[in-house]
From TrEMBL:
It comes from Capitella teleta. It comes from the Eukaryota. Belongs to the arrestin family. GO terms for cellular component: cytoplasm. The lineage of its organism: Eukaryota, Metazoa, Spiralia, Lophotrochozoa, Annelida. This is Arrestin C-terminal-like domain-containing protein. One of its GO terms (biological process) is protein transport. Residues 171-309 form the Arrestin C-terminal-like domain.
Amino acid sequence: MGKLTKFEVRYDHPQGVYQAGEVVQGRVDMVLSEPMSMRSITVHCLAKGKVHWSRRSGKHTTHYRSEEVYINVNMLLFGEANGESITHPEGTHSYPFQIRLAPTLPSSYEGVFGYVRYFCKATIDRPWKFDHDAKTAFTVLSNLDLNLEQLDLRNPMQGQQTEQVSCCCCVSGDIKALFKINKRGFVPGEAVKIWADVSNNSNTEVLGTRVALKQYIEFYGKCSNFFSGSSMQSKCVSDILVTLQRPAIPAGQTDTWGNVALRIPAIPPSRLVGCNIINIAYVVKFYVSVNYGNDIKLACDITVGTVPLYEAYSSQPAQLPSMPIMQQPNAPPPPMAMAMAPSAPPACLPPPAYEECVKGRVTISDENDSKYTRGDMQWAPVYPVYQFPVEVPEDTV
């Protein structure tokens, strides 16, 4: 195995997760079976947001890119940078390091067209030989306290829609859908409580109903073509994170979703505050698949935070008060509801667990890494997931 039998970057937090504003403490562990000649051992802490996508038109491909650098710090752990070669003794060695995170840093995020990524990379600089590298990513979480949001996220929402059904050029009745959620602010681990009624007042079958948690990501980048100008362009993609469904509704029948729970998985907070090139939004959507008509689609925008609403820890069952109607296109805005002052926080909020992002691991090697770079290159950020007491039984779906 040669002289270097171990070389890795480790963090004091076992899952490598830190809040913006905290101090990252880590170490570079190294085991040498015999002395090694080197100039230095350094660790490079880099954090950046990066976006890239392309559009093809005929034979021409246009690339859109953007980048933000949040941290770019090099620390000398042994020897002298660009100095004379010295001999490092054999044995087991550990070199500690630390770096303070700015309080305004965005949360970690990994997506198909961009990311916000934090990592530390240790390097053994060897004269006239290939360097040794070891890289380990870590998660940063930007605090999004739902209790401090300008919009009162405690308020429930509802929407309704009626769709005419026609068969053989004749109207065969209509389908009415009413969709409600208990509030608009949630954290991972919490359940969105869903109420829905679908009345099939037609003589044809409704194919089924379903509810989905959708994530919308908007990436911003500039065109690499000089003649296209330097204005920022955007690309929006969506992904279904969780879905629940119910079977078909026969003609003349009604189906009810009664307090069904849709659990928020481990996902990054809304908006990705602190990042100017990626934006995140979440929507709970309700679908009714209509035979011989347009499908019904109702949507409620929600905010996913890192600190739950104080009332989420109340021991009282959730009540469903009268709900504001979701604003429909071309409809006047609903009357403004009176904002409720946040209740006092409980003496002790149960600490969350940290789970890997529900979308799984990605490859984090980049153009500065080689096939010899050590470390786990398949990685996913972790997010806080709260454990809530079950207040009411979940309906069967």
